[in-house]
Specification:
ABC transporter transmembrane region fold; transmembrane; P-loop_NTPase; Rossmann fold; ABC transporter ATP-binding protein; 24 helices; alpha/beta; 4-stranded antiparallel sheet; 2 domains
Length: 607
Amino acid sequence: MDYFKKILRFAKPYRKYGYLNIFFNVLYALFSALAFAALIPTLDVIFYPEKKVTNKPVYESLGKAKEYILEYVNYSVTQYSDGDQMKGLIMVISLVLILFLLKNLFNYLAMYFITFLRNGVLQDVRNAMYQKITDLPISYFSEKRKGDVIARVTSDVLEIQHSFLSILELIIREPLTMLFTLLIMFGISPKLTLFVFVFIPISGLIISKIGKSLKKKSDRVQKEQGEFLSIVEETLGGLRVIKAFNAENRFIINFKKSTNRFFKFSNSLLNRQNLASPTGEFLGILVIGVLLWYGGQLVIVEKSLDAASFIGYIALAYNFLTPAKAISKASYGVQKGNAAAERVLEILETENPIAEKENPIEKSVFENNIVLENISFKYEDEYVLKDFSLNVPKGGTVALVGQSGSGKSTIANLVTRFYDVNQGDIKIDGINIKELSKKSLRGMLGLVTQDSILFNDTVGNNIGLGKEGATSDEIIEAAKIANAHDFIMELPKGYDTNIGDSGNKLSGGQKQRLSIARAVLKNPPIMILDEATSALDTESERLVQDALEKMMQNRTSIVIAHRLSTIQNADNIVVLQKGEIVEQGSHNELLSKNGTYKKLVTMQSLS
């Protein structure tokens, strides 16, 4: 129940709907019991027309409440019918119909209000999960499959709504229905009611045995759903490579294996769950059968119960067993909901290792320099950077070069605080970036990566992501600086053209220039370029490089370069090897050293 309590905190904003649901459920439970109890006087009118009460009954005590109620109903029927038996029958039937009508009206109103609570919780849990996903560090998602995260936000949250939140309907309604029904049953025949209670614990024990393994089975189903959603996500992302390497069959086989496991797990789960209804049905009929046997003895042999009361009692027993079955079925839902809630809460309760300090510093102006002081960092076991130090003065351009895996992109990840250093400090104007709010830190930084990350939206909205509330003129000006305006105007709808998923309607160079335009629009004092031209052809590289040079004017820049021809004008070129600085200086200084940098330049010029 711990998971249930944690999920219930999302119900607080909607508690007024919960109170209204409880109110109407109380009325539903009361009228549900009264509707079946009203059958007894109906049967009396049909089978015992001689039972006429001409004198108004007087209430004596609680012990004789049953006799008083029956006599009062019979008195009312006698007064109304005035000797016409059919007239009395119509009155009693009308009473039963009104009671059933009110019962169903209150049931509808209870369900009407709980709908707002259930869907409100569903909405808020999903919103909280999405907010948490955007807040968690990038490192968290390098360990999780995207499809599994998507499954948690979609199907797991929906499972919580179907299982956990359906219990809210049952917590008040069904127990109260059982209580009111039981009180009336006890009033009709205490002996018969006590006899029934011998069988209820046995039924409950059998049903609980069936439900025990449901959480484990449900957990397997939900995990497997995350697995095949991951395969779908990877397939859509890598469709070109899959087709190019004729690897369709391999992915189809993997997908079929996953859906086959899902098929088996689902069958096992649903068959166990489906066992609840027939088991409950049989146990209910068993109880009714025993009641007919024992009640028949009370009517025929002992004559301590009249036939009308006995038939009404059987109807009430059915009314008691129906909510009992609903509660047993809900207990299966709790087991399934437990597995889903555990997966949802795993994300919601994950601590963010890159946390802000309380009352962080808000900084919007860059004044002096960025300093990396003796930093060391590792993603897993081996250090990618070891005792690394670097000073980037304001207005300067520092280029980082080296072979793949030397730690260049890691520096960009650390300065933007996508990851935190294991040792050492990164300071901007003498302030440790851990002291700054993440929003103000990243507000001073512009990032252009090798992979142009664009969204399925218009050109204008993709560029406009760089500045909230940017005007059309500002977007166009940024596009011009990025050498993107001309090709944008050739698109079918210009800046209103949708560029497709990940910008796939554009070429690599066009996508990169949109990324640069986005960074230009942001107009940050510090720019980080992570191999921004390495994936482009020569013509696109020239246009992009020209755009980058315009953008870098009067800005502090950290350039991670693969093509060394793009960083020859940098103020300081830092050569990295296995996470350590082996050389640094200007282009000409490094060439004159005949060291690692010259080897890299020679290798690229020969290629």
